[in-house]
């Protein structure tokens, strides 16, 4: 691979001139600039980014630690971080804990896995990163991030209520509010809810959004229209059967997987989503486009969560004073309209 010295020699100019042209600095004539750039292209020169960063006493590298790269939300968040880093001349080092692959859902609630997280943070810091983004594979409160690393930390898709660091998550309440309003605007007042597990923060926040939408539209809240599933498809089938027997005309399912159970049950009674019952899901999983008809749902802003996380971290790195107030940023979900809503106006 060619060096900057060879580029200078081949072009008949000084090393300083080549360096200035590479970095877009003024001073060289158009003819000289053209000649140097042609030589760079011909000799396939690639700048030594590491050496440049060392001269600046900054390596412009952040660390990304994922709980599990195989979970549906993680790749899009990493992609959002990647784009922002590219735009701001930052690199990243990626570490994958593989917690879901190793322990399934157990690590969501058990703290005996915290040591793996702490070890990964120490390992990432040893790679001389200037800050770290930690990406959860299930949105929840966590208390496993070490606070004494001496570098900025941002978490994505997970949060710390004590605000020991800045977190970026999606807005559950707003998403449920918008989903319920879509059904109300289609003429529905008897809207059933297939909720998640009672203890889940997602269930609690989404119920707040559902109830607020009813209140804002002067619709009487009926607690019998809310039944809990377990986030899995079979529970959606069982709950939808009970809700339909209670006279609802529309269902808000708190995830797309349980929404699949609604399709299953309606098939058994020769009825159809979008024709006999309106249905909205949540998450915009790939399965939502495989249902017939395709499922209207609330899309999670995963890419935007990644971009915002990178923006916050890099702003913390670039500021001399890192002792700032930390926040929990909530990014709104996006309604994705398909064919599962029946207007009864």
From TrEMBL:
Any one GO molecular function term:
transcription cis-regulatory region binding
Taking every annotated instance into account, which residue ranges of this chain make up the domain HTH lacI-type? 2-56
PANTHER family to which the protein is assigned, alphabetical = HTH-TYPE TRANSCRIPTIONAL REGULATOR GALS (PTHR30146:SF109), LACI-RELATED TRANSCRIPTIONAL REPRESSOR (PTHR30146)
Q: Which UniProt keywords apply?
A: DNA-binding, Transcription, Transcription regulation
Organism, as annotated: Clostridium neonatale
Q: What is this protein called?
A: LacI family transcriptional regulator
Query: Could you tell me which Pfam families the record lists for this protein?
Result: LacI (PF00356), Peripla_BP_3 (PF13377)
């Amino acid at each position: 691979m060619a060096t900057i010295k060879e580029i200078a020699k081949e072009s008949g100019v000084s090393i300083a001139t080549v360096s200035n042209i590479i970095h877009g600095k003024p001073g060289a004539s158009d003819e000289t600039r053209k000649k140097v750039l042609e030589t760079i292209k011909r000799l396939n020169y690639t700048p030594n980014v590491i050496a440049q960063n060392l001269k600046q006493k900054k390596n412009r590298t952040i660390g990304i630690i994922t709980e599990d790269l195989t979970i549906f939300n993680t790749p899009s968040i990493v992609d959002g971080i990647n784009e922002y880093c590219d735009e701001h001349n930052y690199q990243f080092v990626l570490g994958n804990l593989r917690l879901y692959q190793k322990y399934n859902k157990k690590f969501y609630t058990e703290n005996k896995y915290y040591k793996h997280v702490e070890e990964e943070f120490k390992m990432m810091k040893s790679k001389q990163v200037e800050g770290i983004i930690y990406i959860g594979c299930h949105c929840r409160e966590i208390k496993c991030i070490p606070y004494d690393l001496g570098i900025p930390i941002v978490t994505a898709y997970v949060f710390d209520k004590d605000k020991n660091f800045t977190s970026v998550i999606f807005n559950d309440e707003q998403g449920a509010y918008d989903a319920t309003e879509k059904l109300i605007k289609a003429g529905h007042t008897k809207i059933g809810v297939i909720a998640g597990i009672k203890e889940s923060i997602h269930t609690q926040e989404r119920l707040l959004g559902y109830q607020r939408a009813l209140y804002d539209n002067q619709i009487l809240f009926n607690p019998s229209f809310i039944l809990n599933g377990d986030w899995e498809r079979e529970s959606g089938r069982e709950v939808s059967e009970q809700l339909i027997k209670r006279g609802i005309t529309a269902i808000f399912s708190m995830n797309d997987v349980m929404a699949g159970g609604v399709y299953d049950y309606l098939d058994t009674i020769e009825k159809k989503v979008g024709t006999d019952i309106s249905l909205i899901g949540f998450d915009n999983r790939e399965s939502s486009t495989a249902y017939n008809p395709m499922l209207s749902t609330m899309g999670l802003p995963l890419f935007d969560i990644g971009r915002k996380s990178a923006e916050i971290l890099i702003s913390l790195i670039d500021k001399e004073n890192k002792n700032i107030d930390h926040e929990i940023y909530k990014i709104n979900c996006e309604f994705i309209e398909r064919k599962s809503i029946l207007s009864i106006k």
